[in-house]
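Possible regression after last week's pipeline update?

I re-ran a chain I had predicted before the update to compare outputs. Posting the input and the new output here so someone can diff against the archived version. Not blocking, just want to make sure nothing changed silently.
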Amino acid sequence: MSLYDSMIANIAGSEWIIIVLLALILIFGTKRLPQLSRSVGKAVGEYEKARQTFRNEMQEATEQARKEAGISKNVPVSGPVATEREKLEVIAKSLGIDHLGKTDEELRSMISQKMNA
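New output (post-update):
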């Protein structure tokens, strides 16, 4: 390992930030650096705004699809299920299917019908 490699390896994270800032000052100058940082800040703000808009549209589309399919939105899931029967009951509840008094096969059939409808 050369002296240069050992010097690079010994530079910590905060020291890299200082090196990058000094390089930016040398490249852009002290007068253009505030303008550059404002431009970067605006770009980050626009990105966050677009990301939030996309997230909201996805939530609205999901809710609309749930309404059209007749799927209940607020089915609490308390954790993993222990048995196949519990899994069927949770799925049936989320789809608005009455699971009381039904066999596993009846529930599977009703869930399949509801999902394919």
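Follow-up from reviewer: compared with the archived run. The longest helix spans residues 13-69. Marking as no regression found.
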